[in-house]
Design brief:
By secondary structure, this protein is of the alpha+beta class. Helix content is 23%, strand content 30%. The chain is rod-shaped.
Length: 253
């Protein structure tokens, strides 16, 4: 299926970019006949394909199909018998084959970037507004990918896109600012307390939480909930580590 300048292969996990020749078509039976004019008499089509390192059914497919062929396959065949593309064009009356050039798998991230999207990982950091346990021996689980328009994202954020992660809020200690289930965009490239009273994702002991942070005169850091019924905490001597700065909150209506 053709979508813009991309072709979706039979494998839905793989996307292939196409670069097509603008010349007249030389494909299918016409290409088969031109190649047969160059083929040594002692060489069968199947053996030619095998010796060139292409699909053994290459020539059979040409006879029954009408699709473009891969440029690297055609060049391998010609090199195997010591012929050139110019010779092929000559026996075909000057018509060039329609080729699929530079076929290569490309990632969904590359396509998204070209289309103006940033793909942000949603990960399970066990962050909770009421505090949930962090497992220091377990890497964060990747839950999926959430797309953001790059132009919109750059209006609120100028740092490295790779440092952004989406986590889900849990609990009610940051109500009404953050509700249970909210999407929380965290800039993990910022792990130093350089802004007071703003919202940060942190680990406190073995707990993960989202809190406002305030540097205290005595050297401690106060971890403040927005919910007035939840008491603040105070961290000292490396008890707390900053995971990242919360820069955006989104929720379903």
């Amino acid at each position: 299926m053709q979508v813009g300048n991309f072709n979706l292969s039979a494998n839905p996990a793989q996307l292939v970019r196409l670069g097509m020749s603008d010349t007249k078509d030389l494909r299918g039976m016409a290409l088969y006949e031109a190649l047969m004019k160059l083929k040594p008499e002692s060489l069968s089509p199947t053996n030619w394909a095998l010796q060139a390192g292409v699909n053994r059914g290459f020539f059979s497919n040409l006879k029954v199909g009408n699709g473009a062929v891969r440029s690297d396959s055609l060049r391998k065949l010609l090199a195997q018998i010591g012929r050139t593309e110019d010779e092929l064009y000559s026996v075909a009356g000057g018509v060039q084959p329609t080729l699929v050039e530079n076929v290569r798998p490309i990632s969904i991230e590359t396509i998204a970037e070209e289309q103006g999207w940033a793909l942000i990982e949603e990960i399970d950091l066990a962050l909770g507004m009421g505090a949930t346990f962090l497992d220091a021996n377990r890497l964060p689980e990747r839950l999926g990918i959430i797309p953001f328009r790059m132009d919109w994202l750059r209006e609120i954020y100028r740092g490295p896109i790779a440092g952004l992660k989406i986590v889900r809020g849990r609990g009610d200690s940051m109500e009404p600012t953050i509700r249970d289930g909210d999407f929380v965009l965290v800039d993990t490239s910022r792990q130093r307390l350089d802004e007071q009273d703003v919202v940060w994702a942190v680990s406190y002991g073995d707990l993960g939480m989202i809190r406002r942070l305030r540097q205290m005169p005595g050297g401690g850091i106060q971890l403040m909930p927005d919910n007035p019924v939840v008491r603040p905490l105070e961290a000292h001597d490396g008890e707390m580590h900053i995971i990242g700065r919360v820069i955006w909150i989104g929720r379903r209506m």
